[in-house]
Design a protein that fits this description.
With 118 residues, the chain is mainly beta. The chain contains no helices and 11 strands. The strands form 2 sheets. Strands 2, 4, 5, 6, 9, 10 and 11 form a 7-stranded mixed β-sheet that branches. Strands 1-3-8-7 form a 4-stranded antiparallel β-sheet, with no helix packed on it.
């Protein structure tokens, strides 16, 4: 599967952004999808994930309560709605995919930059 993330940009602290990730391939609905991010000078970290059906979601503590991951299998797209953004949310955000139950994320998109100004 190929992943194309979009929706990043510059936003003021307290603002909102919605990231989108369009996936190619007819088996999109079978994949667990997620988002990772990497801030300047820091290691890449998990942000959120969603099961193939959308019924199970998981969030990093740092974004829990401020972000919502969702998916539209008919459009082969996964979203990350981020609210109450903080400067520490500044990072390149990557869309990822894996087969259910797989130990690692097999597919990575190219990333979209989110910059939150204070």
């Amino acid at each position: 599967v190929q992943l194309q993330a979009s929706g990043g940009g510059l936003v003021q602290a307290g603002g909102s952004l919605r990231l989108s990730c369009a996936a190619s391939g007819r088996t999109f609905s079978s994949y667990t999808m997620g988002w990772f991010r990497q801030a300047p000078g820091k290691e890449r970290e998990f942000v959120a994930s969603i099961s193939w059906s959308g019924s199970i979601t998981d969030y990093a503590e740092s974004v829990k309560g401020r972000s919502t991951i969702s998916r539209d299998n008919a459009k082969n797209t996964v979203y990350l709605q981020m609210n109450s953004l903080k400067p520490e949310d500044t990072a390149v955000y990557y869309c990822v995919a894996k087969n259910p139950g797989a130990p690692k994320w097999d597919y990575w998109g190219q990333g979209t930059l989110v910059t939150v100004s204070s």
